[in-house]
Every structure is written in structure tokens, then in C-alpha cells.
Write a structure and sequence with these properties.
Order of helices and strands: HHHH
Main location: membrane
Strand content: under 5%
Protein name: Mitochondrial genome maintenance protein Mgr2
Distance between the termini: 54 Å
Organism: Karstenula rhodostoma CBS 690.94
Subcellular location: Membrane
Structural class: mainly alpha
Low-confidence stretches: none
Number of strands: 0
Oligomer: single chain
Keywords: Membrane, Transmembrane, Transmembrane helix
């Protein structure tokens, strides 16, 4: 999972929105190629290659599936990583350094006499 932009110390910045879009498209395209190969090969074995031949039919399945998966994965990745101010504030609160309380605010410890 990518690191949120404001979470890195020293003024470093995370990937831009365009980088996230490209990354989602590449991941979706890769998954789509594999799924297209599996479904295309299965359909060619079951129903035959048709008039276009085996390679062209398989390629059409793979390219169509890769384009569809890539498109939706790119949009989903961009939307998912676009954080709201409330989420960014909660993330900052969780990851801040712990505050050490002075002795007067710590819980009193029970002495041995109070237990009996």
C-alpha cells in the first residue's frame, strides 16, 4: 500500500495522482492479460477459434480484458488513494510520538498497606 503524502519525514512526497493512475492501469492491464488468456484459451478449446484463427481470437480476448481491467483499476486506485482530511488527521494522530505525562498526572500506585 502506498504511503500517504504527508506521512514521510523530511519533506519527501509520495507518488502524484498521475503516477497512481498509471500504476493502477498497469496492474489492471497485467491482471486483464492473464484473465483474457485463461478465458480466451478456454473458449477456443470449447468452441473453436472461429474464422479469425486461434492467435487473433486469443489476442482479442486478451486485449479486451486488459483494457477493461486496466481502465477500472486505474480509476479505482486513484479514487482509493485520494484521502480525506479527516482520514489524514486520524493517520497523523495514530502515528505521532507518544506524549510522556509528568509524574503528577500519572495514576497513583497502590501501596502495600492499602491492599490489606
Amino acid at each position: 500500500m502506498p504511503v500517504p503524502v504527508g506521512a514521510m519525514p523530511g519533506g519527501q512526497h509520495g507518488p502524484s495522482t498521475l503516477d497512481k493512475l498509471k500504476m493502477g492501469g498497469m496492474m489492471g492491464g497485467s491482471v486483464g492479460l492473464i484473465i483474457g488468456f485463461i478465458f480466451g484459451f478456454t473458449n477456443i478449446v470449447r468452441f473453436g477459434p472461429g474464422p479469425n484463427g486461434m492467435l487473433r481470437t486469443l489476442g482479442q480476448y486478451m486485449v479486451g480484458s486488459a483494457a477493461t481491467f486496466g481502465f477500472f483499476m486505474a480509476i479505482g486506485t486513484t479514487i482509493r488513494t485520494d484521502s480525506s482530511p479527516i482520514a489524514a488527521e486520524a493517520f497523523a494522530k495514530i502515528n505521532r510520538r507518544p506524549m510522556i505525562l509528568p509524574r503528577q498526572y500519572q495514576y497513583p500506585q497502590a501501596s502495600h498497606e492499602e491492599k490489606n
